[in-house]
Specification:
The protein has 243 residues and is an alpha/beta fold. Helices cover 33% and strands 12% of the residues. The chain has 6 helices and 5 strands. The chain has helices at residues 13-25, 42-54, 103-118, 140-155, 172-181, 206-218; strands spanning 2-8, 26-35, 58-63, 122-125, 162-164. A 5-stranded parallel beta sheet has the order 3-2-1-4-5, with helices on both faces. β4 (122-125), α4 and β5 (162-164) form a beta-alpha-beta unit. α1 runs parallel beside α2 (42-54), α3 (103-118) runs parallel beside α4 (140-155) and α5 packs across α6 (206-218).
């Protein structure tokens, strides 16, 4: 096993699976979670619970605020409604309007800063390019070039810095099966995916539909859907100290 890494943990299904993966590859695992005034703010409470249950070595919440990442994405512009689709087949091709430009690049830059200060050269990001809504910053070309840019700009050209994206080439079905094989499937009840920030999940945004299809194709019942009461209801939301 490698010594230590930092995982960018949103509190969603994918980053939670990536965190569990990291626990099998690294002796020490640190987590970092970002508040950027996102509409789906429940994910911060989810990240706190996931990190607590999986047992990370440290967990830092970073407040980016509400004026650094801007754009027309309904995730950061609450005057824009979250797109609603009848089913997965109704979703249009191309980049989803929920795309937040520069988000992953900013997160990686800050995570690399923290990694450098801690003597860590491994950052884990739970992105997948198969079922991503066409986001530019979930593709292999982005991961590869971001790795090289951060290596040169932060660690130096002779460093061993690497961005691990263990879910990059997996479908949502395969991610569900991976979480099952890692023994964390029951923990999915604590994760948050819905872009409308609701419990129960709205079931009509593209994030909900992709998650639903993944569990359906894997032949597994989503533990979150089975919950009658909000599993995050008792978790103090870290965002409350930010706003």
């Amino acid at each position: 096993m490698k010594p230590t890494c930092i995982v960018i943990l949103s509190g969603g299904q994918d980053s939670t699976t990536a965190l569990a993966w990291a626990k099998t590859k690294f002796v020490e695992v640190h987590a970092i979670t970002f508040f950027y005034a996102q509409r789906h703010i429940r994910e911060l409470a989810a990240a706190r619970k996931v990190a607590e249950v999986l047992g990370v070595n440290s967990h830092e919440f970073i407040n980016i605020g509400d004026n650094i990442l801007v754009g027309t994405s309904p995730l950061i512009d609450k005057s824009v409604p979250v797109p609603k689709y009848k089913d997965i087949d109704s979703m249009p091709l191309g980049v989803e309007p929920t795309f937040v430009p520069g988000r992953n690049l900013l997160f990686l830059t800050i995570a690399a800063n923290r990694a450098y200060s801690l003597g860590i050269q491994d950052v884990v990001l739970g992105v997948c390019q198969v079922d991503s809504g066409g986001y530019y910053d979930t593709k292999d070309i982005f991961i590869n070039q971001a790795t090289e840019a951060i290596r040169l700009g932060v660690f130096g050209e002779n460093s061993d810095f690497i961005i691990h994206a263990p879910l990059l080439d997996l479908s949502k079905k395969q991610i569900v099966l991976l979480s099952k094989s890692l023994g964390i499937l029951p923990m999915m009840k604590y994760t948050h995916t819905c872009y409308k920030n609701s419990f129960p999940p709205c079931g009509f945004c593209h994030a909900c539909l992709l998650r639903e299809r993944g569990f359906m194709e894997a032949g597994v019942i989503d533990p979150l859907i089975e919950q009658k009461n909000d599993p995050l209801n008792s978790i103090k939301n870290p965002a409350l100290s930010f706003i």
